[in-house]
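User: Hey, my collaborator sent me this sequence without any context and asked if I could get a structure. I don't really work with proteins. Can you help?
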Amino acid sequence: MSRRSGILEFAVLGLLRESPMHGYELRKRLNTSLGVFRAFSYGTLYPCLKTLVANGWLIEEPGHTAEDALAAPLAGRRAKIVYRLTAEGKEHFEELLSQTGPDAYEDEHFAARFAFFGRTPQDVRMRVLEGRRSRLEERLEKMRASLARTRERLDDYTLELQRHGMESVEREVRWLNELIESERAGRDLRGSASGEPDSQDTTSGAPGGLPRPGDASRPDTPDDTAT
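Assistant: No problem. I've predicted the 3D structure and written it out in structure-token form, which is a compact way to encode the shape of the chain:
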């Protein structure tokens, strides 16, 4: 499994852990709630869904809304399929939540992991946050060393671009420091004392101002019949 397909499977399972969805709604949630998936297509999502169904982690059900009931007679379209997490799928998602390997610290995977921190145990959150901070501190050190070596050979615009990149990393390190301090103090993101995972619905957007590529999403075409 590629790293990106693994991230997508994790995110799909996490969103379906909240409620069943059909493919169009699921893609829209991935686009708007998890910015790292803004550019992916149905051609990427449906193979992922079929793999999860084949593994027994999802089941396919016919849609039950009034709109779905009317879809079949209109222009020969089939009703939308709803994807539901199975008991095995829930267990697998919980297992994935507990993992804190190096992949969890990378840019795309960290954003997906953070979006589901409300369901993640506190000790796991701490390991992921500290791992991410260490990874960024290493990146920042390399960026500073590179800038020191090449400063005299760069034009003003390239130099400014590199400074901008460093400032972005520095901001995220400061943000991570604040989150880690809150976790150690036993506070959730709303400042109340809590030893349990935050129960807020993190799928509606990354809490705490998570840096992400952008909030805008491309228009979707609601062609979500079964394939």
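In plain terms: The longest helix spans residues 122-150. You can pass these tokens on to your collaborator as they are.
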